[in-house]
Amino acid sequence: MSLAGLAVYCVLLNTPVREQEFRIAPMWRRAAAFAVDFWFGIFTLGALSGFVHVLLETSRTGKFQWQYHRDYLVATDGVSFVLVFAGLAALVAYFLLPLMKRGQTVGCWIFKLATVNLDGYVIYMPFSTGMRRLFAEFRGVCSPLRTFRKRDEQGRTFYDIESGFTVVRY
Q1: 125: helix, strand or coil
Q2: How much is the pTM?
Q3: How many alpha carbons fall within 13 Å on the CB side of residue 63?
Q4: Nearest 10 degrees: CA dihedral of 89, 67, 55, 46?
Q5: Category of 103 on φ-ψ map: left (φ > 0), alpha (ψ -120 to 50) or beta
Q6: What is the pLDDT, as a whole number, of residue 19?
Q7: Per-residue b/e over 52-63, b at no fewer than 16 CB within 10 Å?
Q8: CB 71: neighbour CB atoms within 10 A?
């Protein structure tokens, strides 16, 4: 299932959004797309991480089992620490790569959302700009009251205004 999820993500990542007529996306669409993206990313990356753990236990014991339980630590348990940080980096990449490649995440594709610049064009965003935008969006997720209260007359959020990019519906 995880590999199928990665395949869907790769197809969407390499399918650029075409220039069309855009409208500012309502908050419910943005929130719904984020929820889909978050759960899609967690399930896809969690399944991969869990499978790595199963493979490590199989190589240690010589017996494949889909589940195992131990009351003691072994040397391969240190990999869990590395997998947590690799998973967090992969989750950041899940949201960052579509910004950099004019693509979409799964949630944005489902809810027909795109991130455009102030002129209304979907552009290839440089890494540093994409990270700033992603950090601003993370601040918005962490403070939803501020996100809903601090919107301009067009419906753009504070992080849309700060970053110079807007999430639109097509």
Answers
A1: coil
A2: 0.83
A3: 4
A4: -20
A5: beta
A6: 65
A7: beeebbeeeeee
A8: 4
Per-residue pLDDT in tens (0 to 9) along the chain, 170 residues: 888 888 998 888 888 787 667 888 998 999 999 999 999 999 999 888 889 989 999 999 999 999 888 899 888 888 888 988 999 999 999 999 999 998 899 999 999 999 988 888 888 889 999 999 999 899 888 888 888 888 888 888 888 888 888 889 98
DSSP secondary structure string, 136-166?
Answer: HHHHHHH-HHHHHHS--TT---HHHHHHTEE
pLDDT value for 108: 93
Measured between alpha carbons, how far is 116 from 123 in angstroms, rounded to an integer?
Answer: 7
End-to-end CA distance of the chain: 29
In the structure encoding, which two tokens stand for residue 15, read together?
């399918």
d(CA 68, CA 142): 36
Q: Exposure of 72 by Cβ count < 10 A (0-12 exposed, 13-18 middle, 19+ buried)?
A: exposed
- How far does CA 98 lie from the centroid of its chain? 9
SS3 111: coil
